[in-house]
Design brief:
The complex is a heterodimer of chains A (about 270) and B (about 800).
Chain A: E1 7-10, H1 14-24, E2 28-31, H2 37-42, E3 50-53, E4 63-66, E5 69-73, H3 78-82, H4 87-90, H5 92-97, H6 104-109, H7 112-118, H8 124-132, E6 135-140, E7 143-148, H9 149-152, E8 153-155, E9 158-159, E10 166-173, E11 180-186, E12 196-202, E13 207-212, E14 219-223, H10 228-237, H11 248-270
Parallel strand pairs in A: 1-3, 2-3
Antiparallel strand pairs in A: 4-5, 5-10, 6-7, 6-10, 8-9, 11-12, 12-13, 13-14
Helix pairs in contact in A: 10-11
Chain B: H1 13-17, E1 34-40, E2 46-52, H2 54-57, E3 62-66, H3 68-74, E4 95-96, E5 102-108, H4 111-118, E6 122-127, H5 134-137, E7 153-161, H6 164-170, E8 173-181, E9 193-199, E10 204-209, H7 216-224, E11 232-235, H8 251-264, E12 268-271, H9 274-280, E13 286-295, E14 301-311, H10 322-325, E15 339-347, H11 362-379, H12 384-391, E16 400-401, E17 407-408, H13 413-424, H14 426-438, E18 442-456, H15 467-473, E19 481-487, E20 493-497, H16 506-518, E21 525-528, H17 549-576, E22 583-586, E23 589-592, E24 595-601, H18 602-606, H19 608-611, E25 624-629, E26 646-660, E27 667-677, H20 684-703, E28 735-738, H21 756-773, H22 784-793
Parallel strand pairs in B: 1-12, 10-11, 14-15, 20-21, 27-28
Antiparallel strand pairs in B: 1-5, 2-4, 2-6, 3-5, 7-15, 8-13, 9-10, 9-12, 13-14, 16-17, 18-26, 19-20, 19-25, 22-23, 23-24, 26-27
Helix pairs in contact in B: 7-8, 11-12, 11-21, 16-17, 20-21
Classes of the chains: A alpha+beta (about 270), B alpha+beta (about 800).
């Protein structure tokens, strides 16, 4: 469990990081908190030629609010966002879901953007980003662009990020009046990746239910009518598989049951 | 006031809690030390057509690449406990037989370079058909792992005690259970590690390894390295990051890395990583069991019929098949059952070889036996508590000889059960169950009674041999424990025990025992527990296994104290002018009983043999005493295959209430009560620690843990995200109760206590789940998906 050889670049500016990414492309890997990447390196499942450490780039720091949006920069650790005093008021879904991410030790190191970049299909932050309809800001030497969450997650641990890009920040819409939020998760143990996690955003007209742990990426559905039949239809359409921890059938059952509970709770929270 | 019996602060903790532990990886590597990495088989079964190591040998920093050619040149096969035509090496020779089997070893300047070079080794494998499950291994057409054996059945023995056929013929009822007990392991936080050195001038090996014993393995290793025992120095580091039996399984690597150091001509360090550990260190055995009972209408069992198929994996590693035989003397558990038949088969499959693991055979046996007790209650519509009570070994019959030859040393099982249900609140738990069920919840109550064997008879393994084979091999029995006490010129006391603690706090308990014997404080006593076979007193039974520390090693310490005390008392008698039998040791002084002013400081008396030996008779020279103690009750198997497999037998009665979530299938333990009779309690805090730790690992076995192989033989629980162990968030605190029946067979009256919950708890939880769901067949681990499927099928 020792990494294959790699070069390490401690980028001091965004421009420097962009330069290395432009030169190395897919042979480079961006490291922030390292909570997933370091084990992947140690198991030689990730074998970048160059590791670009972005944790010393001053431009990538901070949590900001504008246009009713929370903008979280690439250096922000999960613990920092969770401790942000406005979080529960501005975005209750994040406040509910984030304690379920790993353990406090991993949240102290892991970054918000890093979790989005990894796009683990069971992870909480990609689920929340999708449920809330957030955005990912990518940048490279070519410039900057924003990608909506629904377009960002493209498959199993794969995203719309190009090889020469890094995530500069992710944006979560703030709570709007009349919205209700809920989050539920079932995992084998405290802190494990979810077998199924559900996030719901209820408005006056409809409810959005996003689920993770059941397909190659988080999946969201807008329900006008969140009946048992509609949930059952949603669950049956998911491309879920058996694995060591649970059967596909079990996961679908949890989507129906936890999904219904999550929707009901989000609706109650609207009131 | 005695120190023994008090929960004094552990002398080990100050170092451990301030980061000053001295674990293998902290110790300074010798000058010129190189680092090893192991290339492992990706195939469950394949012929090795060719290995090309030329590119690896030429790689940066590489000193040597070891293959089967080196190992067969410098080594010999590892001996096993059965007579079978199998040659087991510490590296794959011509064929790989499990995923993770070592194929080559790279020795390089550091571990990174060694792993880089592993990728340059080209192995040409020709995959072979596999045999993965024990049921498959029994089939005559299964793919054979060891051609010399001709099949995959390494041993097949049948035993008969009493008249089981008659009892079954007369029985009102027959109740049976089938169990497919999974593979799991107690997974220490510190993995295997060693530093190997070879001195060509002396043709001698010096191995420092996280080995826990038993040191019978020393003989296996010396033979595997083709040196006499006095040229294999085996040492252990001062601290251990846990073992639970598992680190016995490092021994093939001791042989392998010894040869690697010899070939490389330099010391070699190897620290196993977590992936290696999970895939290929060792696991408990998985076992296929059919157990049948002949039962009277009132629930009284008149006979048992065991059929056990033990899966030891791809090789039989010493002391296997000991997992199968450790429980032989107590196959009737806590019950008085006169007639028993047993068929034990040992089979080989394309999985990692098995070895010691906390509970060692108990989890498998008691899972079947205690599931059966629950089934008897269900099928005969009896209260499960009454079925247990009806069959318990009665009060007042100890020592009690079991049908299979075990000698239960002491106890009062019915009284302990009564105390447990009173103090543990069984009636209230049953009321809670009624209430929960009235609310439509799935709530179950489970219980189990277990005898916990400790201090293994080194001869029990020979029960696998026929009486004729045993006669030929000569008797094997006993359980030598060792303790050495030294007095220095300042009169300070140092103790060495060959108990190889793996975190349990042996040094503290030894200090308590010695302080009591000499009237000193525990802080006055220095206890050394590192092992060095070149310098220390030891025997093949030395080491840390079979819960032998408190009863056997603690007892040997007591006897060594008594021997020194007698000498000191005679010396003091001359100086204090009183008879030796009126000398007492108290308050750091040696004094005349009834006249405390007529006294000497202990330290001055203890130093006499250094400073004024001429004043002492030859027999009274007290400098250093080594005691070897073996209990006479541990005799070899009889001609009728009766075996007292263990010296001590603690008693455990557990019960619990739990709820199964109707939707998720998750188990929530509502209350868990565990009653222990472990004889005399030497340190209550440590006993509680042993019970709590065993309980946590047992909860893991019950609900989370399994080493899983896919049907194609690939290993799919290879990381700690796949092999789930409970954390403190998942483990409720059990209510621990005690009932004290000192063992008449041990010097201090103590029995082992460390393994019992690994035997009692998995099946107690399973019995409660079976009660909650009303199901008959239930195999571990009880995962939410498995239980949800049962709930939703109902």
């Amino acid at each position: 469990m020792k990494p294959a050889p790699f070069d390490y670049v401690r980028a001091e500016s965004l421009a420097e990081a962009h330069d290395v990414l432009a030169a190395e492309g897919g042979d480079a890997a961006v490291i922030a908190g390292g909570q997933s990447l370091v084990p992947l390196l140690s198991m030689r499942m990730a074998r970048p030629k160059v590791l670009i450490d972005i944790m010393h780039i001053a431009e990538l720091d901070g949590i900001a609010m504008d246009n009713n949006t929370i903008r979280v920069s690439a250096r922000v650790r999960q613990a920092e966002l969770l401790a942000w005093p406005d979080l529960a008021v501005r975005q209750p879904l994040l406040a509910q879901a984030m304690p379920w991410i790993g353990h406090w030790q991993t949240r102290s190191r892991g970054t918000v953007c890093g979790s989005i970049a990894l796009a683990d299909p069971s992870a909480e932050l990609p689920l929340c980003l999708l449920a809330l309809g957030g955005e990912v800001t990518l940048s490279s030497k070519q410039g900057r662009r924003s990608v909506e969450a629904g377009d960002f997650f493209t498959g199993l641990m794969s995203t719309a990020r190009r090889d020469d890009e890094l995530i500069e920040q992710v944006s979560f819409p703030c709570r709007r009046p009349g919205e209700g939020f809920a989050f539920r998760e079932f995992a084998r143990r405290h802190g494990d990746f979810a077998i199924v996690a559900c996030a719901a955003v209820a408005t006056e007209k409809s409810v959005q239910l996003a689920v993770s742990g059941v397909a190659d990426r988080p999946v969201v559905r807008d329900f006008d009518d969140a009946s048992d039949a509609a949930l059952a239809a949603f669950a049956s359409e998911l491309d879920t598989r058996d694995d060591l921890h649970a059967t596909a059938e079990y996961r679908r059952m949890l989507v129906r049951e936890l999904g219904r509970q999550t929707i009901e709770e989000a609706r109650r929270c609207r009131a | 006031m005695n120190w023994v019996g008090q929960s004094i602060e552990r002398v080990e903790d100050a170092a451990l809690l301030t980061g000053r532990g001295r674990y293998i990886d902290d110790l300074a590597a010798p000058p010129g030390c190189l680092h090893a990495a192991v290339l492992r088989s990706p195939h469950p079964h394949a012929a090795i057509r060719a290995i090309d190591v030329s590119a690896a040998r030429a790689a940066k920093g590489v000193a040597a690449v070891i293959t089967a050619d080196d190992v067969t040149q410098f080594g010999a096969p590892l001996l096993a406990g059965v007579k079978a035509n199998i040659r087991c090496w510490p590296i794959a020779v011509e064929r790989v037989r499990y995923v993770g089997e070592p194929v080559a070893v790279v020795i390089a300047a550091d571990r990174y370079l060694a792993e880089d070079a592993l990728e340059l080794i080209a192995v040409d494998y020709a995959p072979l058909p596999i045999t993965l499950r024990p049921a498959d291994a029994l089939k005559p057409d299964s793919a054979v792992l060891h051609e010399g054996l001709g099949s995959n059945i390494a041993s097949d023995r049948s035993f008969r005690y009493g008249d089981p056929a008659g009892a079954f013929a007369r029985a009102a009822h027959r109740v049976s259970v089938k169990v497919d007990y999974p593979r799991n392991s107690c997974t220490p936080i510190e993995t295997y590690g060693l530093i190997a050195d070879y001195d060509p001038g002396e043709d001698a090996y010096d191995m420092l390894a996280t080995f826990q014993g038993p040191f019978s393995i020393h003989a296996v290793l010396a033979r595997a390295l083709k040196v006499p025992g006095n040229r294999l120095r085996l040492r252990t580091p001062p601290d251990s990051g846990g073992s639970f039996g598992v680190k016995q399984g490092i021994f093939p690597y001791i042989a392998l890395m010894g040869i690697a150091a010899r070939v490389a001509g330099r010391p070699v360090k190897w620290i196993e990583d977590r992936l290696e550990h999970l895939a290929a260190s060792v696991s408990a055995t998985n076992r296929m069991i059919t157990l049948e009972a002949a039962v009277e209408a009132d629930g009284r069992i008149t006979a048992l019929a065991w059929d056990q198929v033990e899966d030891v994996g791809a090789h039989i590693r010493a002391p296997e098949p000991a997992t199968l035989y450790r429980m032989h003397g107590n196959l009737t558990g806590a019950y008085d059952i006169a007639n028993v038949s047993v068929r034990n088969r040992v089979v080989m499959t394309n999985k990692t070889p098995t070895g010691l693991n906390r509970g060692f055979g108990g989890p498998q046996v008691y899972y079947a036996l205690e599931r059966m007790m629950q089934r008897i209650a269900v099928e005969l519509q009896l209260d499960p508590l009454n079925v247990i009570r009806r069959n318990l070994v009665p009060s007042g019959v100890f020592p009690f000889r079991t049908a299979t030859g075990g000698l239960l040393d002491s106890g009062d099982y019915p009284a302990a059960v009564q105390q447990a249900i009173d103090e543990g609140g069984l009636a209230e738990l049953r009321a809670r169950q009624q209430q929960a069920r009235a609310e439509g919840r799935l709530y179950g109550v489970g219980m189990t009674a277990v005898v916990e064997p400790s201090v293994s008879n080194m001869g029990y393994i020979t029960t696998v041999l026929t009486p004729a084979e045993r006669r030929k091999a000569g008797p094997k029995n006993g359980a030598q424990a060792t303790a050495t006490i030294s007095l220095d010129p300042g009169g300070a006391v140092t103790v060495h025990v060959s108990s190889v603690p793996q975190g349990q706090g042996h040094r503290t308990v030894v200090a308590q025992i010695v302080a009591d014997a000499f009237g000193l404080r525990p802080s006055d006593i220095r206890v050394i527990t590192e092992m060095d076979t070149a310098r220390d007193a030891w025997s093949i039974a030395s080491g840390n296994y079979a819960s032998r520390f408190a009863p056997a090693v603690g007892g040997a310490v007591q006897l060594a104290c008594e021997r020194i005390r007698e000498k000191l008392a005679r010396a003091a008698a001359a100086q204090l002018n009183v008879p030796a039998d009126e000398i007492e040791f108290a308050a750091s002084r040696v004094r005349a009983r009834g006249n405390p002013d007529n006294a000497l400081p202990f330290a001055r008396l203890a130093a006499t043999a250094h400073w004024a030996p001429g004043t002492l008779a030859d027999d009274d020279q007290a400098l250093r005493e080594t005691v070897f103690w073996t209990p006479p009750q541990l005799t070899a198997p009889t001609e009728e295959d009766g075996i007292n497999s263990s010296l001590c037998h603690g008693f455990i009665f557990d019960f619990c209430g739990l709820e199964v979530d109707r939707i998720t299938g998750a188990v929530r333990i509502d209350k868990y009560v565990t009653m222990h009779d472990c004889g005399r309690v030497l340190h209550p805090g440590m006993v509680a620690g042993q019970v709590a730790g065993g309980f946590a690992q047992a909860l893991g076995a019950a609900l989370y843990e399994a080493y899983v192989y896919a049907d194609d033989g690939s290993f799919i629980s290879g990381t700690l995200a796949d092999y789930l162990m409970p954390t403190s968030a998942e483990v409720p605190a059990p209510l621990i109760l005690h009932f004290e029946s000192p063992s008449p067979f041990t010097p201090l009256g103590a029995k082992g206590v460390g393994e019992g919950n690994c035997m009692s708890t998995p099946v107690c939880i399973a019995n409660a789940v079976a009660d909650a769901l009303g199901v008959k067949e239930l195999d571990l681990p009880l995962t939410p998906a498995k239980l949800a499927a049962l709930v939703h099928a109902a």
